[in-house]
Amino acid sequence: MWGGGVVDWDGLRRELGDWYERVRRDLPWRRTRDPYAIWVSEVMLQQTRVKTVIPYYERFLERFPDVAVLAGADLQAVYKLWEGLGYYSRARHLHAAAGMIMAQMGGRVPSDPQVLRRLPGIGDYIAAAVLSIAFDQPFAVVDGNVKRVLARVFLMETPVNHPPGHARFQTVADRLLDREQPGRHNQALMELGALVCTPKRPLCPQCPWTAHCRALQSGAVPDFPRRVKPRRPGEQFWVAGAVLKKGRLLLTRRPDRGLLAGLWEFPCDRMDGAADPAADCAAMVRRQVGLHCAPPQHLVTVRHAYTHFKLRMALYLCPWQGGRVRLDGPDHFDWVRPDQLDRLPLHGAVHKALPALLQALRGQ
DNA sequence: GAACCGTGGTA
DNA sequence: TTACCAAGGTT
Fold first, then answer.
1. Over 80: is that where the pLDDT of A36 sits?
2. In chain A, how many domains are there?
3. Strand C reaches within 7 A of the A123 CB
4. What residues make up the domain containing A57?
5. A295 in the same domain as A339
6. pLDDT at A231
7. A291 and A265 both lie in a single domain
8. Distance in angstroms: CA A102, C1' C3
9. Is 90 exceeded by the pLDDT of residue A4?
């Protein structure tokens, strides 16, 4: 894998550690050794930028300062704090894991790898991160940063976005790990990927590993890491109906599984056909919440990009005409005054459409 | 093993 | 506008 060349593992570890001590960012989760806080930070940082996470992390630790408080909290409150951060199952898993820790593990984040790994939402990466950073245990993390750095330094052809190749990176990361200071080492390697060995325009002159990097020596840095072509996401069309009754709007909650689990929205569904969207919307309202409404009035159509499909959602204003709410799909509902909408966790597409709705309501 | 699961920044 | 990408995990 390393082309027969000799690798100076000790030199790599030392130079990385020295570099990290010089340039490390002062991040909120680097000011604590509390396993709970480290865990929360790692969950939030999953597929999410540091800059985005910081305010969420601060609020979360303030509101839920330890495992016991989180376990005792209402899941809806956790979702509300997570609103806008995405991947909402992370919030549900964190809450459920806190409950398990209180019920079965004496209220402390477990330091046993096998126990930790059993908690929902904790996979290989987060387990290794918590164990190394909070408990000084010798586990190497492999995230997107680590793969990119290793691919360049060792000229690894393994695609970084193809699960079958993951084990190759883990093997190299294990060999490279500084077992004396695993927490510092793991953070240093990720910091190198975040600050220097970046996806585009890496800052090679600032890299502590210029003498070791095979991609740099062969002028191939822009060609690494390798990546397999992802499939282009398809497009979906949704119709959403804001049912208005006596100045209140009907909001529904999505089921606890699947897309946008647990978040609130206006009743919506994929469009049946392109023939008559307004009639589609009225039919959707009857089907999903059992209500009859006056002819829906188109307010706005928003675009939103999810991981695996693109969405165009048309929002209609639907004056209530009759019927009592009977849910088919959503698992909860509530009639909400427009100025109270911010009490519920809403997803991105709803937030995009909201200004048009509020403006229409003011105009009535 | 492949598909699913969000959002915002950036080029 | 589109494509890429970011401290992954679950089903």
1. yes
2. 2
3. yes
4. 9-223
5. yes
6. 83
7. yes
8. 44
9. no
